[in-house]
Each structure stands twice: as structure tokens, then as C-alpha cells.
Write a structure and sequence with these properties.
about 240 residues, alpha+beta, Chitinase A, domain 3, 2 domains, seven-stranded antiparallel β-sheet, about 20% strand, disordered N terminus
Length: about 240
């Protein structure tokens, strides 16, 4: 409980000092390696707090608690009374955020499914063939190379094969998300597809980096080649 409380408060302090007062505060200059490390810590903690969907006013309240704690000012509430309420508060906020994300994802996928050229599988995967390809179709346990770009439904890019140095090696049926496993066996080498993954075919109800819990994902996927077992780079 204490660890959760400290992380939340510290993250709130960092986020409040950056996001909440961004318009008023001067731009911070990162002059030293310590400055850069502390800034990275702020980003990390702010990402952890992001699932609570706090308002600017709420972030200011967290900052006030952090300031009073660090400066040993008289606290405005008793920690023994309100500390135990933090986890239920966080759980309720995350549950509400998950429900909202799923609602947006469902509406988005319904819109996509109604468009011409979209194929919907039994699992709910939506796939649009960009170019069919003329090579072989991979099967389970084949090692393949792919190019990809992953985006959220708001268009934000969260990952791409370019970030990993080019075509990315994966094993069909291996430790990759369900929608990739399903889509790859529907493609031929040289083919390109745009796939739309409901959350239960992606990361489900848990957040993953920049991906919110319950998010639908979109991938531009190109099947570059099927390679021998000892030739495929290990997936990261």
C-alpha cells in the first residue's frame, strides 16, 4: 500500500509540474545527465499515473500533498485515514477508463467493419487486403519476417518495425498477439494488409506501454518472407 501511495503521489507531482502547468511554466533545459535522468523518471512515473485519468485540478491537489510531505508542512488530512482509500480510488478510476476505452473501440470497429473491402473473421478480426502477394502462405511454427506499423484508433503510432531496424522476425503461432497469428496465415509472402484488432485479440484489459487497457489496435502489416529457423532474428 505504501509503495503504491508513494508512486502515485510522486507521479502526480511530476505530471502536475509538467502537464498541468505547461502553459505557465518556462521550458525546462536538460543541461546535465542527471537532469535527463530525472526527466526520464518523470516520464516513467507520469505514464504509470496516466491510467487514472486525473484532471488538472486533481493533479494540483496531488502536488500540494507532495509539497507538504517533502517540506514537512502540517498535512491537511490524516494519512492513516485516507491512505487506505487510495487503492479503491485507483481501481474505480481504472475500471471507468477501461469501460470508456472499450466503448470507443467497439464504435470504431463497427464503423470499419461496414466499409467495403473489409473482411471480418469469426474471432472479430477485421482485415483489409492492400496487396495480395504471390508467395507462399505461412503455417504454424514458421518463422517469418514482417514490416509493420501499429497505431491506436486516434492515429497515434505506438510501434513499428523501423524502430527495430527493419523487417522483424516472429514465429507464427508463437508469443505474439492473437490478431497477428490469425492474420499471418491469411497472407502470402509479398502481401500487405491492414488489420484491426479488438482488444481481446491484442493486449486485453491490461495496458502495455503507450497502449491503454482495452484498446483496439490497427496494424499495417507486410509479410516480407518465410525464413529458415536459424535465419530469423529473435523477436523482441
Amino acid at each position: 500500500m505504501k509503495r503504491f501511495f508513494v508512486c502515485c503521489v510522486l507521479a502526480g507531482f511530476v505530471a502536475a509540474g509538467t502537464a498541468c502547468a505547461a502553459d505557465q511554466a518556462p521550458k525546462i533545459e536538460l543541461k546535465t545527465e542527471d537532469d535527463k535522468t530525472l526527466y526520464a523518471l518523470g516520464l516513467l512515473l507520469a505514464n504509470q499515473l496516466g491510467t487514472l485519468k486525473l484532471t488538472p485540478t486533481e493533479l494540483q491537489v496531488i502536488e500540494a500533498g507532495m509539497t507538504d510531505g517533502v517540506l514537512k508542512n502540517k498535512p491537511l488530512v490524516e494519512l492513516e485515514t485516507y491512505g487506505p482509500k487510495i487503492k479503491p480510488f485507483a481501481d474505480a478510476r481504472m475500471t471507468a477508463a477501461l469501460a470508456e476505452e472499450k466503448k470507443k473501440a467497439t464504435a470504431y470497429l463497427e464503423t470499419i467493419a461496414a466499409k467495403p473491402g473489409i473482411k471480418k473473421t469469426e474471432s472479430g478480426l477485421l482485415i483489409e487486403t492492400v496487396s495480395a502477394g504471390t508467395g507462399k502462405t505461412p503455417v504454424a511454427n514458421d518463422k517469418v519476417k514482417v514490416n509493420y506499423k501499429g497505431t491506436l484508433i486516434d492515429g497515434k503510432v505506438f510501434d513499428s518495425s523501423d524502430k527495430h531496424g527493419g523487417p522483424y522476425g516472429v514465429t507464427v503461432g508463437g508469443q505474439i498477439i492473437k490478431c497477428w497469428n490469425e492474420a499471418l496465415v491469411l497472407m502470402k509472402v509479398g502481401g500487405k494488409a491492414k488489420i484491426y484488432c479488438p482488444s481481446d485479440l491484442a493486449y486485453g484489459d491490461r495496458p502495455n506501454g503507450e497502449i491503454p487497457a482495452g484498446a483496439a489496435l490497427i496494424f499495417d502489416l507486410e509479410l516480407v518472407e518465410i525464413v529458415a529457423a536459424d535465419a530469423a532474428p529473435a523477436a523482441k
